[in-house]
Specification:
The complex is a heterodimer of chains A (466) and B (197). Chain A is an alpha+beta fold. Chain A has 16 helices and twelve strands. The N and C termini of chain A lie far apart (79 Å). Chain B is of the alpha+beta class. The longest helix of chain B is centred in the middle third of the chain and has 27 residues. Classes of the chains: A alpha+beta (466), B alpha+beta (197).
Chain lengths: 466, 197
């Protein structure tokens, strides 16, 4: 009977002296995988040289293919000649588990889906669990890539299923939606376009579980609890605006302390109270986004074109990050949760637009933009169907790639129309009047749509109450 | 989900097990359990992973809008749906849909977003669920007092991912809802105003 991974697990917990003895016996008998592995491990401890590491790598590759090779390759070069029994065990267990997960999730193992850079061996410290929910477990870690560069990454386990309304309406296989592949495909196209609006995305593993790692080091928004008076000027164009209206303040004044507390919580505030006729609030405040910021406009516009190409039907103001520099100006926009994309039935990029009818009321996207800058135009001119084929093969089906090519063609037509109509601007003109006027329609502009939504969640505070 | 709930969810509902399971899910999130009208308590059954309700579920809660526009497509029986749904990392939310008599309320509030401030998210959910309960009782009182016409229904949609809005409707008439990021608050204040007249 072949000796399996379970047998190795139990044996590998023993000391290496025992391993050597057992290994020698096994090696002298049947030349099983286990026997070979133990022989190689024992040799590695004795000789501590790269040749033994390579032998072990070959043995792993023989049994597990490229997954085994990649898992082992993730070990830091300096550690490769000092393979401990614990490391060997971890490599074997991880490899066996990952191979099974790739197979059960129907993910092919190829150059675009391979792991190797984001494994537990590469972590520079323990993973940090983010969030508090019992579900949606996400980890933040720092990975030291084989080249030596340290990258922050957010890991989320890949699971079967998960296709939603958008997936079902755009032709994504609901039995096997392969959401991780769609995230990676989005990143690869972003890279091909040179857009930098999608974080690096690749498969990785944590605790032996396969998942997607987004190269992201999310900063925490500086927030501090402040006490301030609700005035119409202070909460203008924010979600708190209604609290400044006299008719609502009059009603709030009649409420019991408990009711007032409930209303404060609803607005995300710690407290609402009256000081005479003044309505006082206490809560965290953040500086609101300035949608006139040229970089915010430019990057959101690029993200919108990116979503049109990918057929990303669920872009809402909660699944992109806006990074700001020390001066408060926007430096980057990054779209995440890119898995509701690349449906094979979505040939028209405008098909992701929300409309109230039953065929479109679950989409959260927009019509293609009505303005574009020259950099983005050039990027799309250089993007050919052949490049799309090359970028997406191995990640998506032929029909999904074909639909993406159709969307590219529609985007090129739209760009041609914008060129004809004088709606192509220079990259430094996003703060200008033409851009402003072209970004007012919420059906065709994330800027217009989210200016209203986001700034109702954030607000700028002025003088605080002493 | 247990094998029993898969094979016979209705049985669970009758035995009251489902609502206990639902409470356990919310307790696991350290969130208050949403208000359930008395008439619906025995009808709650498991509908999916962390999702409970009183009607068949043929589309995801996360989509939200199909549930709203359904009101103008056909006469919808009273129902309650609640639970956690979403995808990806940041697109996760608590959902609470209550269609009951004169009220149709749809809440979709971000939860388990690792990049959001947990305390603020929890406060917002607790506050919104509290207002939802208060709104239900206030509008019921308004109906009993005859302050609201028979057949008239208040529709409130509050979402962190879609447009929040509110307004009145009658039967399956087309919805004409006013966009308002504080839709639940404004609707509640409106009912309070009606009651005070």
């Amino acid at each position: 009977m072949p000796i399996g991974i379970d047998t190795f697990r139990s044996i590998s917990s023993l000391d290496l002296g025992r391993l050597k003895t057992d290994g020698d016996k096994l090696v002298s008998g049947k030349q099983s995988f286990l026997g070979r592995a133990i022989g190689i491990i024992t040799g590695a401890r004795q000789q501590e040289n790269k040749a033994i590491y390579d032998s072990f790598k070959q043995a792993l590759t023989d049994k597990y293919g490229d997954i085994g090779k990649d898992v082992l390759s993730s070990i830091k070069p300096g550690d490769r000649t000092r393979l401990s029994s614990a490391t060997i065990k971890q490599v074997l267990v991880t490899t066996e588990s990952l191979k099974h997960q790739y197979q059960s999730l129907g993910i092919p193992y190829n150059e675009k889906t391979r792991i190797g850079r984001c494994l537990d061996h590469n972590l520079t410290g323990p993973m940090k669990k983010l969030g508090s929910g019992a579900f949606n477990t996400v980890y933040l870690g720092k990975y030291k890539h084989p080249g030596g560069k340290v990258i922050g990454g957010v890991f989320k386990k890949e699971v079967a299923g998960g296709g939603g309304w958008v997936a079902s309406m755009t032709g994504i296989n609901m039995k096997n939606p392969q959401l991780g592949m769609r995230n990676i495909a989005t990143y690869q196209l972003n890279k091909m376009l040179g857009f930098n609006v999608i974080p690096s995305t690749e498969f990785g593993a944590h605790g032996g579980e396969l998942g997607v790692v987004m190269g992201l080091a999310p900063g925490t928004s500086p927030s501090k609890s402040h006490t301030f008076e609700i005035t119409s000027e202070r909460v203008k164009n924010t979600r708190l605006a209604r609290l400044a209206e006299p008719k609502f303040q009059a009603q709030l004044m009649k409420m019991t302390p408990g009711e007032l507390k409930g209303n404060a919580e609803y607005f995300g505030l710690e407290e609402l109270r009256f000081d005479g006729k003044r309505l006082i609030a206490k809560g965290d405040v953040q500086v609101k986004l300035d949608f006139k910021d040229p970089t915010l406009r430019k990057e959101l516009n690029k993200l919108q074109w990116m979503d049109a190409l990918c057929g990303q039907g669920d872009r809402h103001c909660g699944n992109y990050f806006v990074e700001r520099g020390a001066n408060g100006h926007v430096t980057r926009v990054t779209g995440i949760d890119n898995d509701q994309s690349f449906g094979e039935a979505l040939h028209d990029p405008n098909g992701i637009m929300y409309k109230p009818d039953f065929l479109h009321n679950g989409f959260r996207g927009c019509h293609m933009p009505t303005i574009i800058d020259r950099e983005t135009v050039e990027a799309f001119k250089l993007l050919t169907p052949e490049k799309i084929e090359e970028t997406l093969t191995g990640l998506l089906t032929g029909d999904e790639i074909s639909a993406c090519k159709d969307r590219l063609q529609a985007i090129k037509v739209q760009i041609g129309t914008l060129e004809t109509n004088g709606k192509v601007i220079n990259p430094d003109q996003w703060g200008g009047e033409l851009a402003t006027q072209s970004l007012l329609d919420k059906d065709s502009s994330y800027v217009a749509r989210d200016n209203k939504r986001i700034n109702h969640l954030l607000f700028e505070y002025g003088e605080v109450v002493k | 989900m247990t094998e029993e709930t898969i094979t016979d969810p209705a049985n669970d509902a009758v035995q009251g097990k489902a609502i206990e399971s639902a409470k356990a899910v919310f307790s696991g999130e350290s969130l208050r359990f949403p208000f359930v009208p008395d008439a619906m308590i025995g009808l709650i059954r498991p509908l999916g992973d962390r999702i409970f309700g009183t009607r068949d579920l043929n589309m995801e809660l996360y989509a939200l809008d199909p549930f709203v526009t359904e009101l103008e497509q056909r006469a919808v029986d009273d129902y309650l749906l609640m639970g956690f749904d979403g995808h990806g990392i940041s697109s996760q939310a608590l959902h609470y849909f209550l269609v009951c008599g004169p009220l149709a309320l749809f809440l979709q509030l971000t939860w388990a977003n690792p990049f959001a401030d947990e305390a603020t998210s929890r406060r917002r959910i607790e506050g919104a669920l509290g207002l939802a309960e208060s709104l239900f009782f206030d509008i019921t009182t308004a109906v009993e007092k005859g302050s609201i016409s028979p057949g008239q229904r208040l529709v409130v949609v509050e979402s962190d991912f879609s447009t929040s809005r509110w307004g009145w409707t009658q039967g399956t008439a087309p919805l004409a809802l006013e966009e308002d990021p504080s839709a639940l608050f404004v609707a509640h204040m409106k009912i309070r105003e009606i009651l005070s007249q």
